[in-house]
Amino acid sequence: MIRLGILILTFFIISCGSPNEPTKPITSVLRGDLNLNDYQYEIADAVLYSNYLVSGNEVFTKGFLKQYKASDVNNDGVYVTAEDLMYMVKIIVGEAEPYE
Ligand SMILES: [Ca+2]
Ligand SMILES: [Ca+2]
Question: What is the distance between the alpha carbons of residues 20 and 10, in angstroms, rounded to a whole number?
């Protein structure tokens, strides 16, 4: 599923680019704010995260690239993993500190 997400992300980046236009940078996103409401590490973010892991890209409807970027909760450079979701749950219940 992660490979499919990376493949779709790569296709999206390639298909949106143009050699004559500068690539627009992704504006900053809050780590752990999967639903992009400016609040990190909410239960709603964890629910959305688990929905992504079950259903895939279709659940990131507010801005796929931003939501994808916000998903690296454990700050290991790997996006949308079960480990990120588990780390998010630990943050929510107070067992782990969030990364900046
Ligand atoms: Ca949020
Ligand atoms: Ca990660």
Answer: 19
Q: Looking at the CA of 99, name the nearest ligand.
A: 2
Compute the distance from residue 18 Cα to the ligand 1 centre, in Å: 32
Distance 31 CA to ligand 1 centre (A): 9
Residue 84 covered by a domain: yes
pLDDT along the chain (100 residues), means of 10: 56 47 65 97 97 96 96 96 97 95
Q: Work out how many domains the chain is built from and give that number.
A: 1
Which pLDDT value is given to residue 14?
A: 46
Ligand 1 (single-atom ion) residues, CB below 5 Å? 33, 35, 37, 39, 42, 45
Domain holding 69, by residue range, is 2-13+31-92
Cα separation, 34 vs 42, in Å, equals: 9
| Helix pair 82-92, 43-55: axis angle to 10 deg | 160
